[in-house]
Structures are given as structure tokens and as C-alpha cells.
Amino acid sequence: MTMITQNSPNKKSKLVSLEAFLKLPETKPASEYIDGQIVQKPMPQGKHSTIQGELVTAINLVVKQERIARAFPELRCTFGGRSTVPDVSVFVSQRIPRDDNGEIANVFQAAPDWTIEILSPDQSQTKVTKNILHFLTYGTAMGWLIDPEEQTVFVYRPKQQMEVFDQSSEQLPVPSFARELSITVGDLFSWLLD
């Protein structure tokens, strides 16, 4: 059992296990269990929310109808001693957990096949990158880190050098299961103008 210290400004420190963390009420914005700490994500703002909503829709238009995969916004994923809430998690269809009724389960205890994070103004790029690298260690095929302020997308793949995409005409790489999705850097950030 992993024990952590939960710190808050007006409370004394107390030990909390991952199991106990998962029993805590959800917070808004979501809290995550990372490297022995409970960390609350920043509240999404306009650019973040716009890109997140449009990206989930764009991905699902390509992969959901054919039952190839499905994109989920703000889905808690618990695996490898962590419990995090990526901005967008994409799971191939056969890996989506189901309950006894065949419906999508509430609890996902696996790394997504594709994880996408959108950097908020006060968010640490280092912490978000560490989350993406953790996902890659546990089987995620690709991670995107989108920086709306710099209009840049960092693409991470297992055992490969990180790639930077910041030219409007550049085609963004996608996992093989989503190869029908065609999106450029310019497409992604044009959503901020609508």
C-alpha cells in the first residue's frame, strides 16, 4: 500500500493511500494522485476548453462510428500507482472496459492508447510531460502536449525522441488506429478563432 502526505494550507498533514484517494469525493477541477501527492488540476479556461471540446469531437467523428476507438474528455485513468485525469483519453474499442450490462464502465484501470494534454496558463509543463511519459511506460502509443499560448504541439511516442510541431501547415501525427484523422497545427489552433 502506497502512503502519501496530503498537504493543504489550513489542515494538518495526514497519510492517504491510493485506495483511500480513490474513495475521496471528486473535486472540480479534478484532483490527481501523482508520485505520492494529491495535486489538483487547474481550472480549464477558454482556450483549453475550446481545443478540448473540438478535439474530442474531431477524433470521435473519425474513430467512433466505425467502433475503432473513442475519445473521452476528463476521464480518470488509474494504473501504475497513479490516478490521473488527462484532458483527452482515447481508447481503442476492444480496450474500453464494460460493465455487466455491456455499457461503458465507470472505472478505467488502464492507460489510454492516446493521451492528450492541453497546457493551462499556470500549469507546469514539466509535470504534464511527466504524466505523458508515465502513460507511455504503461502502453500508451502516443501523447500530445498542446500549448495554446505558443501554438505548439509536442508529440511523444515510446522510445522515440519528442517531436515539436509549430508550423501551421504541418500535419500532426496520430496513432495508427486513427490514421484517417487528418489535422494540421493550423486546423487545431483555428478553433480558437471561431
Model regions low in confidence, pLDDT < 50 over at least 5 residues: 1-13
Average pLDDT for all residues? 91
The arrangement of helices and strands along the chain is: EEHEEHEEEEEHEEEH
Strand order of the largest sheet: 5-8-9-10-11-12
- Largest sheet entry: 6 strands, mixed
Any idea what the shape is? globular
Helical fraction equals 10-25%
Number of helices: 4
Structural class designation: alpha+beta
> Could you tell me how far the N terminus lies from the C terminus, measured between alpha carbons in angstroms?
48 Å
Strand content is: 25-35%
Number of strands: 12
Alpha-carbon Rg, integer = 17 Å
Question: Could you walk me through the main structural features you see in this protein, from its secondary elements to its overall organization?
Answer:
This protein is α+β, with helices and mostly antiparallel strands. It is 22% helix and 29% strand. The protein is built from four helices and twelve strands; from the N terminus they run ββαββαβββββαβββα. It has helices at residues 18-23, 46-63, 125-137, 185-190; strands at 3-8, 11-17, 31-34, 37-40, 69-73, 77-79, 82-84, 88-92, 114-118, 142-147, 152-156, 163-165. Strands 5-8-9-10-11-12 form a six-stranded mixed sheet, with helices on both faces. The protein has a two-stranded antiparallel ribbon with strand order 1-2. A two-stranded antiparallel sheet has the order 3-4. The radius of gyration is 17 Å and the shape is globular. The termini are far apart. The model is unreliable at 1-13 (pLDDT under 50).
Please render the helix and strand layout as text.
Layout: E1 3-8, E2 11-17, H1 18-23, E3 31-34, E4 37-40, H2 46-63, E5 69-73, E6 77-79, E7 82-84, E8 88-92, E9 114-118, H3 125-137, E10 142-147, E11 152-156, E12 163-165, H4 185-190
